[in-house]
Amino acid sequence: MEKQETQPKEWSQKSWETLSKVRKNSPLIQCITNFVSMDLAANTLLAAGASPAMLHSFDEIPDFTPQVAALYINVGTLTASTLPAMKSAAEIAVKNGKPWVFDPVAAGCSSFRLRACLDLLLLKPTVVRGNGSEIIALSRASFGDTKGADSVHESMDALEAAKSLALKTGAVVAVTGAVDIVTDGKQVIGARNGVQMLQKITATGCSVTALISAFVAVDPTHAFEATVAALSVFGIAGELGMQDAKGPASLRVNLIDSLYGLDQESILQHAKISSLS
Ligand SMILES: Nc1ncnc2c1ncn2[C@@H]1O[C@H](COP(=O)(O)OP(=O)(O)O)[C@@H](O)[C@H]1O
Ligand SMILES: Cc1ncsc1CCOP(=O)(O)O
Ligand SMILES: [Mg+2]
After folding, report:
1. I need a labelling partner for 251 at 20 to 30 A (CA). Which of 92, 155, 203, 205 fits?
2. Calpha distance 122→184 (Å, rounded)
3. Which residue among 133, 146, 151, 176 has the greatest number of ligand 1 atoms within 8 angstroms of its CB, and so is best to mutate?
4. Closest residue (by CA) to atom 15 of ligand 1?
5. Are 103 and 171 in contact, with CB atoms under 8 Å apart?
6. pTM metric for this prediction
7. Could you give the 3-state DSSP secondary structure of residue 273?
8. Domains of the chain and CATH, by start
9. What does this protein do (predicted)?
């Protein structure tokens, strides 16, 4: 039977329902993430109702990773000594049927980092979320056309790269920017929530990937829909937070407050989700 496409109003309802489920279930999310993002990513998860644990020691992974609802891996401050823990956690998550979500920060920055990201992709992430330059680097398996952790591409420039990466890896692939794109290689959904000022706060990308992990944790059989919902919810929190922000520092505070206080009416009113297929 042909799969029914979710309509725009259903997308916003789905976003609300998934946030409500995160609040109700408070999923435990293991985050192996970079030093810059630890604070904002953990606070994003707490504000959404999830339970973050920034545990990254190789020695703890065999005991701890099987207990989590989802695993989040982010290579932002990658070193040769931190990579084995990431690989081990991903393997254990997959072995235990837990979803894992990958943020390939600055994937195209160096051959070391690109190789590490391509190796992690072989360990079957459920979702990959990056900016335009990161997704293009992974899809072409080439480094160079990038500016560290920041993107030199619009998200829409990475649409074909995202589709091809999704087909190659079997992961749901999300590209953020003015339009957040989510694809499984066939279906493409765009979420147009968010404000440009989010780019002026470090680790907002890392934090929205952490949020995706929590949303996927409570709806693992619908990772695609959960990813769309998380991106839209984070963007709406940014829009509401921007209303009385004076700049990046106050937006950072307001973002967390808005996410914490989001209600059904605000989500249904503000969500801008549509098909790009
Ligand atoms: N031009 C923009 N307009 C609105 N929202 C944006 C814009 N650029 C980025 N965002 C939002 O900022 C957050 C971080 O995305 P992005 O800056 O692409 O990630 P990264 O920090 O990994 O490069 C996402 O929620 C995204 O939707
Ligand atoms: C600045 C920086 N350098 C290494 S990791 C990192 C944080 C990147 O965060 P984001 O990808 O969310 O902008
Ligand atoms: Mg990033």
Report:
1. 155
2. 16
3. 176
4. 205
5. no
6. 0.98
7. strand
8. 8-275 (3.40.1190.20)
9. Thiazole kinase involved in thiamine salvage pathway.
- By CB neighbour count within 10 A (0-12 exposed, 13-18 middle, 19+ buried), where does 10 fall? middle
The number of residues in the chain equals 277
Q: At which residue do the structure tokens 């967390």 appear? A: 256
Structure token digits, residue 65: 């990773």
Looking at ligand 2, which atom is closest to the CA of residue 150? 13
- Rounded to the nearest whole angstrom, what is the distance from the C-alpha of residue 33 to the centroid of ligand 2? 10
Q: Is 38 a pocket residue for ligand 2 (Cβ < 6 Å)?
A: no
What is the token pair recorded at 157? 């420039």
Residues that place a CB less than 5 A from ion ligand 3: 105, 205
Report the distance separating Cα 195 and Cα 67, nearest Å: 36
* Tens-digit pLDDT profile for residues 183-240: 999 999 999 999 999 999 999 999 999 999 999 999 999 999 999 999 999 999 999 9
Element (H, E) at 210: helix 204-218
- For residue range 150-172, what is the model confidence (pLDDT) as tens digits? 999 999 999 999 999 999 999 99
User: From CA 37, how far away is CA 46, in angstroms rounded?
Assistant: 14
- Which ligand is closest to the CA of 198, given by its number? 1
Q: Strand, coil or helix: what is 275?
A: strand
> Can you tell me which residue has the tokens 């279930």?
25
pLDDT digits (tens, 9 = 90+) for 261-273: 999 999 999 999 9
